[in-house]
């Protein structure tokens, strides 16, 4: 196992290894149609380290293996991959004023553009299929890396935003640096990421929250560290509440923890557990979870949800 390098966000060498995960276990956790391309992406390593930076609290996998275009092409065939109305859009759109010049990094098919009111929207996206869908919608979307776009359009945007993108990116620092470079003085930066301070950090075998899909995980502290490292002001850290589409997963998690208590099993350890016992526990937890779900019948009962939106302001 190669030595753990400096933190990809803040450059600190104060990094600890929290967990080690077997890459074959990640590939095996996918739908059969995707397993082979995941295995191909991870083939250079039998094991990955899950690390935490003691300085900025960024959690990341090492090596930081990001997905190939073949991997993303495979995922896009699933209907859940591009969702037109993510709950985070409702929170984020409040930060966009009519007429703002908006840059969205990793814009997919341009769904966020339909939630805001500005003729000055530019999107960046690598998937050719998604770019075509966005262009068909009449949007200005190109397959350009943010680093290149920011060099050509420095200090140009009132709002730079990225939804469910930052956690896919390695290395982290140049991506954020380019995002900030494209902002006008006084402009806003919006990053929405899965929250490592929510229930999702407790899920076992959540392979989509691991490489080659996600290479970093973000706590509120890590999101605040972004402001410190890049000289920005934190304007808001907004957690969404549990979305209807995540209620089943959340309920099964509660059921699994309850079963562990009742059956006197040890507390869950590690991000991956592919044992037969875990699979049996998951099955029982899923069934019990459907009962718990019936009790989660009011939004007031809902906990913090999957994602968090961090809003930063660049000095005027
Ligand atoms: Zn760090």
What's the arrangement of secondary structure elements?
Layout: E1 15-22, H1 23-28, H2 32-42, E2 47-53, E3 59-62, H3 69-76, H4 87-92, E4 102-105, E5 121-124, H5 128-136, E6 140-142, H6 146-152, E7 157-163, H7 172-181, E8 183-194, E9 216-217, H8 220-230, E10 233-241, H9 247-262, H10 276-295, E11 304-313
Helix pairs in contact: 2-3, 6-7, 9-10
The protein binds zinc ion (ZN).
Zinc ion binds at residues 7, 9-10, 12, 53, 55-56, 58.
Question: How does this model look, in words?
Answer:
This protein has 316 residues and is α/β, with parallel strands linked by helices. It has two domains: 74-240 and 304-313, Rossmann fold; 245-301, no CATH class. The protein has ten helices and eleven strands. It has helices at residues 23-28, 32-42, 69-76, 87-92, 128-136, 146-152, 172-181, 220-230, 247-262, 276-295, and strands spanning 15-22, 47-53, 59-62, 102-105, 121-124, 140-142, 157-163, 183-194, 216-217, 233-241, 304-313. It has a seven-stranded mixed beta sheet with strand order 6-5-4-7-8-11-10. A four-stranded antiparallel beta sheet has the order 1-2-3-9. Helix 2 packs antiparallel against helix 3 (69-76) and helix 6 (146-152) packs parallel to helix 7. The N and C termini lie far apart (45 Å). 38% of the residues are buried. The structure holds zinc ion. Zinc ion (ZN) binds next to loops.
The averaged pLDDT comes out at: 94
Distance between the termini: 45 Å
Number of discrete domains: 2
The profile of the biggest β sheet is: 7 strands, mixed
Rg value: 20 Å
- In the sheet with the most strands, the strands line up as 6-5-4-7-8-11-10
CATH architecture of the largest domain: 3-Layer(aba) Sandwich
What helical percentage do the residues reach?
25-40%
Bound molecules: zinc ion
Unreliably modeled segments: none
